[in-house]
Amino acid sequence: MQAGCPGYRCPNVEVRSGVVEIKSLMRGRMSREFRMSVLVCISERCVSLFWVMVLRTHVFKKRKAEKMRSDEATEMEKHSLYYIYTALSKPVNLPGIYQFTAMGLLDDRQIDYYNSEQQKKIPTQKWMKEKMQEDYWEEGTQSRKIKEQWFNLNLKNLTKLMNGSESDLHVLQWRTGCEVEEERSEVKFSKGISEFSYDGEDFLSFDDKESQWVASVDAALPTKRKWDSDPNLNKNTKSYLEKKCVDWIDRFSGYTDEKLRNGSLPNVQVFAKRSIRDKTKLNLTCMATGFYPKDVMLIIRKNLISLPEDEVESTGIRPNHDETFQLRKSVEINEDEPAEYGCFVSHRTLETPDIIKWDGKYFGHSLTDTALIAALKVIGIVGGAMLIVVLVVLFLKKKKIIDLKVISSTRRVL
């Protein structure tokens, strides 16, 4: 682009008092214009050629970041295996809630189950029943029985230490397992977790990197010191998290059915409804549902630019009734805003990210519209019902001293 010499004028270039102002127009997808000005000081008598190169750096960086995260989500598969144990200090006489329960979760799907009434470890996936031999279930049943005794003993000791009444309900929970990353059929350890909670509060956890226990509250310090004084316990805990748990994931992943391995595609919808608080605004929602595995990227975009997460409300990833998941994100916008909004979704099952544009329509608050919005949410409600058992045992807030005894002979089969 030539500019800056006397008697010469270029489109969108003005020379004023030795200053060249270069104007640039960026047009939005809905005919909205953006103006950018760059000032350069030069001599009015110059005979040089000037070239202008414009890079939309902000948009480029956003898109590049999205593509990188999308590629990572597609190429790097994540898997997890966790076992969750929950013990109550007394029966609660509610259907489906037992004094002791244990379950295994592979990639957030239950694969086995045990409760204090049946006292038998059973498969909850067809492929687990078909692939795992009878001795696996027998040994697992014995391991769960030992853990049930361990939990019951420590809850009784806790009640005595706090001089509590037998009418009080107390809860002790343990979550242990690991997460791995798989790329090109190579499985790598990512994270290991072994943590205890008491009456719904963090109590004690294992620091895998430092090979030591961490007390979340002062009441857990005696247990931390006792367990750290046993080098074999910490060594075995670290070995299970980093090696045995990873081996189990690798083994189970080879047994899973085709549907589990291939995953489920996300069904993506974008809709809006009038805000209850401000009639001039709309609540725009992006919803992805029916996807598996759990990891997903869902971004609300305005004029092709991702909105910052701190401006967006999220439900977090929630379970559906069919062992898939859903995620909803919402943002409040002006009703007459001429911007283009859409949802950007990336998931392992998608060859390329999916982009769904908002059509500009919205719901009011008539009975019909309210019913429609409720229908879009019903899957999350049904899925949330699966969490009732966990929520029931997490409402207590008491914290007391308990010197937990070490679990013995239970590291091989969970």
From TrEMBL:
Query: PROSITE patterns recorded for this chain?
Result: IG_LIKE, IG_MHC
Its Gene Ontology cellular component terms are: external side of plasma membrane; extracellular space
Please list the residue ranges annotated as the Ig-like domain. 266-356
Q: Does the keyword DNA-binding apply?
A: no
The record's SMART domains line, in alphabetical order, gives: IGc1
Which InterPro entries does this entry report, sorted A to Z? Ig-like_dom, Ig-like_dom_sf, Ig-like_fold, Ig/MHC_CS, Ig_C1-set, MHC_class-I_related, MHC_I-like_Ag-recog, MHC_I-like_Ag-recog_sf
TM ranges = 371-396
Q: Which UniProt keywords apply?
A: Glycoprotein, Immunoglobulin domain, Membrane, Transmembrane, Transmembrane helix
Which GO biological-process labels does this protein carry? immune response
Superkingdom of origin = Eukaryota
Annotated family: Belongs to the MHC class I family.
Identification of the protein by name? Ig-like domain-containing protein
Q: Which organism is it from?
A: Cyprinus carpio carpio
